[in-house]
């Protein structure tokens, strides 16, 4: 990775992301700040249809002595899927080429830090 010049201001940096006054570097891409027109958090909502269907399918199995074990397992899988199927958050940037999700994480606070740093860099750029 190339080291920033002496007069370049760094707004945020961690192991995979760097935001400076002139560049936004992720683990896979580098964006020029002059090409970024806006940035915001985008929530990627995970579907809850399949886990709900599993729970609904498991309920009638609880009424049958032969299938009660399968009903419990099916309901348990559905409930665990609902609990651990968290929404994801993305840093969505708008450039002259369109919109793109540059960083995706389940940690909203982490994404917010990057968005704040990008906004500071855009303001600094003027």
Structure description:
- The chain has 126 residues and is α+β, with helices and mostly antiparallel strands.
- The chain has 2 domains: 10-45 and 86-121, no CATH class; 49-84, no CATH class.
- The protein is 38% helix and 30% strand.
- The protein is built from 3 helices and 7 strands; from the N terminus they run βββββααββα.
- The chain has a 4-stranded antiparallel sheet with strand order 1-2-3-4, with helices on one face. It has a 3-stranded antiparallel sheet with strand order 5-6-7, covered by helices on one side.
- Strand 2 and strand 3 (23-25) form a beta hairpin.
- The chain is rod-shaped, with a radius of gyration of 22 Å.
- The relative contact order is 0.21.
Question: What's this entry about, in short?
Answer:
By secondary structure, the chain is an alpha+beta fold. It is built from 3 helices and 7 strands. The protein is rod-shaped, with a radius of gyration of 22 Å.
Could you outline the blueprint of secondary structure elements for this entry?
Layout: E1 10-13, E2 18-20, E3 23-25, E4 30-32, E5 36-44, H1 49-61, H2 68-84, E6 88-95, E7 98-105, H3 108-125
Antiparallel strand pairs: 1-2, 2-3, 3-4, 5-6, 6-7
What is the H/E string? EEEEEHHEEH
How many domains comprise the coordinates? 2
Radius of gyration using CA atoms only = 22 Å
Quickly give the structural class.
Answer: alpha+beta
Molecular shape: rod-shaped
Number of strands: 7
Distance between the termini: 27 Å
Features:
3-stranded antiparallel beta sheet; alpha+beta; 3 helices; 38% helix; 126 residues; rod-shaped; 4-stranded antiparallel beta sheet
């Amino acid at each position: 990775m190339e080291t920033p010049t002496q007069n370049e201001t760094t707004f945020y940096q961690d192991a995979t992301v760097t935001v400076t006054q002139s560049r936004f570097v992720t683990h896979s891409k580098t964006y020029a700040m002059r090409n970024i027109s806006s940035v915001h958090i985008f929530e990627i909502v995970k579907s809850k249809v399949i886990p709900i269907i599993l729970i609904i399918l498991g309920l009638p199995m609880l009424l049958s002595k032969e299938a009660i074990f399968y009903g419990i397992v099916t309901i348990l899988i559905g409930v665990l899927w609902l609990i651990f199927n968290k929404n994801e958050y993305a840093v969505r940037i708008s450039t002259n080429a369109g919109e793109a999700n540059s960083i995706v994480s389940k940690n909203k606070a982490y994404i917010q830090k990057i968005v704040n740093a990008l906004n500071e860099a855009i303001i600094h750029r003027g």
